[in-house]
Amino acid sequence: MLLALLLPLLLPLPDPPSADGHPPYVRLPPSTLQVLSAQGTQALQVAQRSAQWAVKRVAMEIQYRLHECRGCANHTTPCPAGPRRPGPPTPLLQDSPEPGPCGERPPGTANATRAHGRIVGGRAAPPGAWPWLVRLHLGGQPLCGGVLVAASWVLTAAHCFAGARNELLWTVTLAEGPRGEQAEEVPVNRILPHPKFDPRTFHYDLALVQLWTPVSAAGPARPVCLPQGPREPSAGTACAIAGWGALFEDGPEAEAVREARVPLLSADTCQRALGPALRPSTMLCAGYLAGGIDSCQGDSGGPLTCSEPGPRPREVLYGVTSWGDGCGEPGKPGVYTRVAVFRDWLQEQMSAARSNREPSCRELLARDPPEEPLAAAAAPCAFYAGQCPGSEGACARLAHQQCLQRRRRCELGALTHTLLVLLRGAQELLGPRPSLPRLASARPSASLRESPGRPARDQPPGSRAAGARFQRPRPKQRGEANGCPGLDPLLRKLAILQNTHAWILRVPPDRLAMDFQEVLADLGSKTLNGLFGAQVQAGLGGRHVVFGGLVGLEPATLAHSLPRLLAQALQAFRLAAQQRKSPRDP
Ligand code: ARG
């Protein structure tokens, strides 16, 4: 669209006529070169983000592999039998919330939260103040908050997964420590949205997320306490909310965790303020009718905790941030999913035996496909084989087929994601910043609401590169490869990935700009499609390439030819970088 508007300005300038009165060449004007450069830079950014994300995924697999091997060497976990991709350590699936410590905040962080100021979200929280607060990332982009409720379980809002249910796409960042210790990133093993979640009304807006590895007791992350009975604190109790959400409606996402105190409001008050969209059976509301202090977009899934007094005060989770009508608007308190009414569902899900549950895609893809039904009886296909009387015969073969089929669907899911990333790249390449598909709506689109309301931002700005926090695995890990089965193929995979993407990974972000310097079209070379042969000169990070392409010189043909020139430029830079690396290669 942008191109269409700009086209009249972008048409080429002929060079001075030659002796026979016809200009032999025309140059695309600087305005066109600028548009091309801007689009090229966007394409480069997308390409760099996808490359970082691909490398990061393998790096994470390596980290888990090493984690497993170290545990095995210390005799804390059984040693893996052979070369396998990493699987979940044994205690993963048996950790229901134990009566152990929960809800305790590090000393010095607890009484910092005071309601003040007129900023949505209150104030910046001291580091480590909320040890159960986690962040959910989709394809590397932070999207929602979440609350650690057990070593392997995070509670969050079901609407965070609207349109993105595939666990392979999600990771969770745990809380950082009180001294700013770096937050750990863990892949998601399973997503369990409440089966009654209704995306239109946000009724039952709750989901459990199982982590691929349980949080370590040595780190700063700690679970919050879940309510022990159906009772909730009375209206007027000041409770705490926390998250990285927007600082005001449609505003920027917070750089660090913010926190605020908000009083619980009675069901009557909530209903009067928010109308029939508020379903008191599963929703509670909290905040100030005067407005000003509230959760906001990006805070979804995060905690609303109330302090339980005692010799050692504990924070108990009574709400999960769900929706609001705007943020911090007068008369419109924030809405939270009630946790106390879901105690039974939570218990049931977290204590379910592995054999009673279909394996997750991550579990299936973590192992090589079982070759025959007998092997299918072993995890993770045991779920299917378990339905059969014996390990041989038609039933066992069918179970095996079923398991393989699901595995294939999982592989397809992973592939679809990769394609989507590429497609997004292509979209950005073809036009001015398209708005990315909305993944979760910020409030129920209940037809019950009288006014349609303003649209709310529900995706944090895509400005943060997916791999910004990526750290290369330390070189000494190579030396450990021998002692750790399955590590070598992963290291090889990483090396190959780094090699194929090296051309874009090496460009420092501040130099990631494409600069089209000249497009010179040869007027004597018109093709049947009305395009002209052109010589293109472009720069990237101080390097230059020259290549031949085709360009249109009328509005329609010009618009069509530009995306192709961009793609060619990307290709030329990639080839140039590879040739520099191996000058003798053909
Ligand atoms: N639905 C939002 C999210 O996805 C949370 C909105 C909370 N709004 C509020 N006014 N309390 O992040």
Feature tags:
alpha+beta, binds arginine, 6-stranded antiparallel barrel, disordered N terminus, 12 helices, single chain
Give a topology summary.
Layout: H1 2-10, E1 13-14, E2 25-27, H2 30-73, E3 123-124, E4 133-138, E5 141-150, E6 153-156, E7 170-173, E8 185-193, E9 207-211, E10 238-243, E11 258-263, H3 267-274, E12 283-286, E13 303-308, E14 314-323, E15 334-338, H4 343-351, H5 361-365, H6 373-376, H7 382-385, H8 394-430, H9 476-479, H10 487-500, H11 502-505, E16 514-526, E17 531-540, E18 543-552, H12 555-581
Antiparallel strand pairs: 1-2, 2-16, 3-11, 4-5, 4-7, 5-6, 6-9, 7-8, 8-9, 10-11, 10-13, 12-15, 13-14, 14-15, 16-17, 17-18
Helix pairs in contact: 1-2, 2-8, 2-10, 2-12
Bound molecules: arginine.
Brief summary:
The protein is of the alpha+beta class and 586 residues long. The protein has helices at 2-10, 30-73, 267-274, 343-351, 361-365, 373-376, 382-385, 394-430, 476-479, 487-500, 502-505, 555-581; strands at residues 13-14, 25-27, 123-124, 133-138, 141-150, 153-156, 170-173, 185-193, 207-211, 238-243, 258-263, 283-286, 303-308, 314-323, 334-338, 514-526, 531-540, 543-552. Strand 13 and strand 14 (314-323) form a beta hairpin.
